[in-house]
Structures are given as C-alpha cells and as structure tokens.
Amino acid sequence: MNRISNAYSRLRGQLGAVENDLIDEFVSGKIDRRTFLRHGSMLGLSLPLLGGMAGGVGLLSGSTPARAEPKAGATIRVAAVTPAAAMNPVSIADQGGLTLLIQTGEFLCVTQPDLTLKPSLALSWSHNEDSSVWTFKLRSGVTYHTGQTFKADDVIATIDRLADPKNASNALSAFKGILSKGNTKKVDDLTVEFHLDAPYGSFPYVVSSDNYNCIMLPADFAGDFEKDWTGTGPFKLEKYTPKVGANFVRFDGYWGEKSLPDRVEFVFYDALQPRVLALQGGQADMIDQVPVAGGQALLNDPNFTVIREKSAAHEQVHMRCDTGPFQDKRVRQAMALSIDRTKLVAGLFRGFAAVGNDSPFAPAFPSTDTTVPQRKQDLQKAKQLMEAAGVGKGFKVTLTTERYIEIPDYAILLQNFARPLGIDITLNVESQDAYYGKAVFGQSDWLDSTMGITDYGQRGVPNVYLRAPLLSDGTWNGAHFKNPEYDTLVTQFGRTGDIGGQREVAGKIQTLLLDETPIIFAYFYDYLVVTKKTLVGIPPIANRLFLDRAGFA
Predict the structure, then answer these.
(1) How far apart are CA 90 and CA 106, in angstroms?
(2) Cα 192 from Cα 454, distance rounded (Å)
(3) Which of 462, 524, 458 is nearest to 493 (CA)?
(4) Backbone phi, then psi, for 41, in 5-degree steps?
(5) How many CB atoms lie within 10 A of CB 441?
(6) CB-neighbour burial class of residue 529 (10 A; exposed 0-12, middle 13-18, buried 19+)
(7) Positive/negative CA dihedral, 307, 310, 316, 317
C-alpha cells in the first residue's frame, strides 16, 4: 500500500481535480487498467506515464506473447469495398473511402486498440480548469508529400473548413455545439488552442481518428483531393482509378518510422463474395472488413488469420418520431420488443457481437451504466402497446437502407420479427451512394426515410453517437427526435470529466431512450479483418486500417 501511495502522491500537486479523481478511482479498484489508460490519455497524461503508474501497482497484464516480426519491402494487396463517392476529406462518409484516406492522411492523435489516444501530428494536449480551452502542441519537422511544412496554420484551416456549416462536412456530427468555425487559435507555429462552445471533457477524441474527416491538410488546400492526395502520412499516392483501385508507395520523407511495405495496392469490389474469392484464390493478401454474414468460409478457415476487435460499431434502426406510424412512442417500443436480441447476435453474428439495449452505451464504454435493465423480446407486451396506440391490426411501412456488410440480412430479420405484430415492412435496399445522398435533410434517403438502418463505425467514446443522431438539432437525426430533457442530459454528459459522474448521467440517458425508443440499438458488432497467415503487423483498431507496420513474416 505504501508503494501505491508513494507512486501517486508525487503527482497530486501537478494535476487537476479531474485527473486526481481518475487516480482515486483506479487506486480504489472502481475502474480497471484499460479504463485508466484510456481516460488518462484523453486528459493529456502521457502513455508512458500512465503505463508506469499502472505497472507500479502491479496491474500490468502478463508479458506480451512473442509475435512474428514483419519483414520490410513487401507489396500488400487489399481486396477492398468500392468507395461510395469521390475522395473528398470534408464530405467522405463511407468505409471504403475512409480506408483509402488514412493511407496518406494523418490526424492529430489516433485511437488505439485499447481506446487510448496516441499522439500523432500532435505531441501532447492539455486543458484549462473547466475543459473549455484545450491546448495542443504540434510535432515539428513534419512535411507534406508536396514538400510543404506542417504547422499551426494548417490545423486552423483544416478545422475551420470542417466546422463551417456551409461545407456540409460530416465532421459536423462531432463539432456541432462543441467547436465552431473561427475558434481554433494560433499560439505559435507549433501550438494551437481550441476555444470550445462549452466545456467538453472528451474533446481530444473530437479531433482524433474517431472523427474520420479530421486528417490535416495544407492551409491552401483548394478542395481537389484526388488531384494529388496530399498528406503527411507514411504512404503517398502512386495511382488512383475511381471504381477500380488505388496504389500507394512508401513516402521516404515521412517524419516517423518509414513504412515497412514498399507498396500497398487496393482493388475495389462492389460485393463481398468476389473479395472472398480474391483472398482464397491468392489475388489478395487481406480483406479490410469482413461481416459474419457471407464471410463464414474465411472465418472458419485455418489457412487465414482473423483479426478480431470488440467495438462500439453498430447499425442504428431509426424510426421517424414526427410523422408516419412511429409518431407514438408505444409503437416504437413495440417494434423494439419484437426483437429477440440473443438469437439475433447468435444467428447473424455467430457470437461476434454484444447485445444492445437501445442506447449508444455499448458494453465497451466504461461510462455505460450496466444496472439499467436489458430490454428483451416480449411479444405480448408489444401487442398490448400496439392496441393502446390504436394500431392493433398493424400497418405497412417501408424500411430504406444501404447494401453494406450484414445490413440487408438484418433488414430481413427485422421484417420477420415485426410480422407477428401485424407490421408489414417493405424493404428498399439501395447502394451506399443512393442511400446517403448528400447526407443532409431533404437530400438523403437516410435522413428522410420513415424507417431506416444506418451503419455507425467505431468511436472511442459515445459522444458522436449521443449527439449527431439524437440531439434535436443533430446533423444525422434520421429519427427526427426532439426531446429537451435528452438534449440537457447530453450536454451534462459532455461537461462531466470523471468516470463516476459520466456513469450517473449515462444511466439517466439510457433510461430515457428506453422509454422514447427513437432508435433501436440491437447489437454492437466486432470488427473483423481477414489476412493470409503470413501477413502480420496490422493493429486491431476497429474501422481503421493502418498498414505502415505490416509485412510478411
């Protein structure tokens, strides 16, 4: 016990109240090592310091098992999903486009497999007393592929571009209500300050790889990214052919360790099975994301390696709260009660997922209040709710969604689950570009449909899930859900810096959403990447494919 006290007492006078609260929770055993490292990195405590503190109290896990080391000089071939639209960092919204974007572009910080934040173009960050101003120190000696030097002006221009509502940026899903255009300030060439709209304890995640549009671009970026793919990353573009593929080569001027592969080649496919056949036939070395539905042949094949990472990624089923048959929350509750979530996870995902409870609070988040009762299938109660809402005989509705991973199969299952209630669901499954449209209200089947299913990738904290699709003015509020009490609770959650306080607010949010049920969160799926047995060095970071340390053993 003395060793524990001595290890932390030296830091007490240097840290603020939120940091000391985190230490107290860790020492008392209220949070585990993973949560301690994750939350501490967000607050700006360095990972070496956090790891040393964790090790000092004997909570480091056992020694890391030996792994095969990748050799340099390889060409890695990826069977990838076709990007849904032009490569524009401001508006990109699909997995295929994101995977390409991060081969050449970099973020200020990057979410790691344990959900800690690793410095990248930012060396460190800190906050003022109420977390309303965050100061980021930038890395020196960084150059773009074009030879320009990375500096504070680039950060300001990039963030202002993304935070400007006129640009219809997808990053507004994270920025809206948190950081406005013009509030990123230059201190010097290697220091920027973010003056937030309101205190926000999880802000570093907002400008991390969690916010996939936030790759840093030169201040004079003119908007034509496909012209030269300028970035600071370990790879630079060799060739890009829309709808066909993209080749990248090592950038020898990279600020960090030079990439191990000489080249990375992406070949695009519109469907999963051709990608599976490409890997099985030796035309590809890996598939960037494999759903369980349709991917069983690979997942059960000992000739391939499955990289599995638990995540908060999920598919949201939104139901319009302002028009149509789901205006009455009792009907939305009935739809949610029709689903057998245990069978859904077992059947659709073969166990590669966790059951959801109709809120964004996944089991992976330490802020989730696990005492909130789990919603289960209850057809009798669902029918009673339908009768009480005046639709006991059922109704017809169209469910519009995207053709992506297991979503079409999920839509069929929802159709079957709803049938005993008399809800007759017609499916309208579209291509991703048709479904998302311009991703703004009035120009998007996603945001304008009465009922829909939308894929949401991994985030290190639940904040984007809480804000963009559920706030009254949320940029991705396909449910058209407006609830002042909810809005207030989400603001409170964002301002709360300590884990215990977040969990208390989370419980209130979870309870409210179970009652209102604007969105069904039935599961949170694992992120699966399948590679050749000999391909190693790919970090298991959900929805983010980093290949610079990959190679063949």
Answers:
(1) 14
(2) 35
(3) 462
(4) -65, -35
(5) 14
(6) buried
(7) positive
How far is the C-alpha of 209 from the C-alpha of 117, rounded, in Å?
A: 9
The string of DSSP letters for 419-486 reads GGGTEEEEEEEE-HHHHHTTSSTTS-HHHH-SEEEEEE---SSSHHHHHTTTSTT-TT-TT----HHH
DSSP secondary structure string for all residues of 48-113:
HHHHHHHHHTT---SPPPP-PPPBSS-EEEEEEEPPSS---TTT--SHHHHHHHHHH---SEEE-T
Q: % helix / strand / coil in the chain, to the nearest 5?
A: 35, 20, 45
Q: Find residue 314's DSSP bridge partners.
A: 456
The amino acid present at 295, given as its one-letter code, is: G
| 62 pLDDT tier (thresholds 50, 70, 90) | very low
Q: For Cα atoms 142, 147, 153, give the angle at the middle one, nearest 5 degrees.
A: 60
CA distance 229 to 234: 12
In which residue ranges of the chain is CATH 3.90.76.10 found? 106-225
**Where exactly does CATH 3.10.105.10 map onto the chain?**
314-525
Neighbours of 138 (CB within 10 A): 23
Both tokens of 280, joined, read: 């099985």
pLDDT digits (tens, 9 = 90+) for 210-236: 998 999 999 999 888 888 899 999 999
pLDDT in tens, 368-413: 999 999 999 999 999 999 999 999 999 999 999 999 889 999 999 9
Structure token digits, residue 241: 């052919």
| Token couple for 17 | 């109240």
Specify the residue for token string 């080649």. 265
In 10 A of CB 255, how many CB atoms?
17
Q: Residue 516: which region, alpha, beta or left (left: phi > 0; alpha: psi -120 to 50)?
A: alpha
What one-character DSSP code corresponds to residue 373? Answer: P
Record the tokens describing residue 104, joined without a space.
Answer: 């050449």
Task: Convert the pLDDT of each residue in 298-321 to its tens digit.
Answer: 998 999 999 998 899 999 999 999
Where are the alpha helices (H) located in 107-171, listed in sequence order?
Answer: 152-163
DSSP state at residue 369: -
Tell me the C-alpha distance between 99 and 77, whole Å: 13
Among the listed residues 138, 142, 125, 128, the one whose alpha carbon sits nearest the alpha carbon of residue 191: 138
Computed on alpha carbons and rounded to an integer, the radius of gyration of the chain in Å comes to 23
Residue pair 332/516 in contact by the 8 Å Cβ criterion: yes
Question: Quick one: 106-225 is in which CATH superfamily?
Answer: Dipeptide-binding Protein; Domain 1 (3.90.76.10)
The residue assigned the tokens 């910080």 is: 109
Of the candidates 467, 446, 473, 508, the one whose C-alpha atom is nearest the C-alpha of residue 315 is 446
CATH of segment(s) 314-525: 3.10.105.10
Secondary structure in 3-state letters for 265-323: EEEEECCHHHHHHHHHCCCCCEECCCCCCCCHHHHCCCCEEEEEECCCCEEEEEECCCC
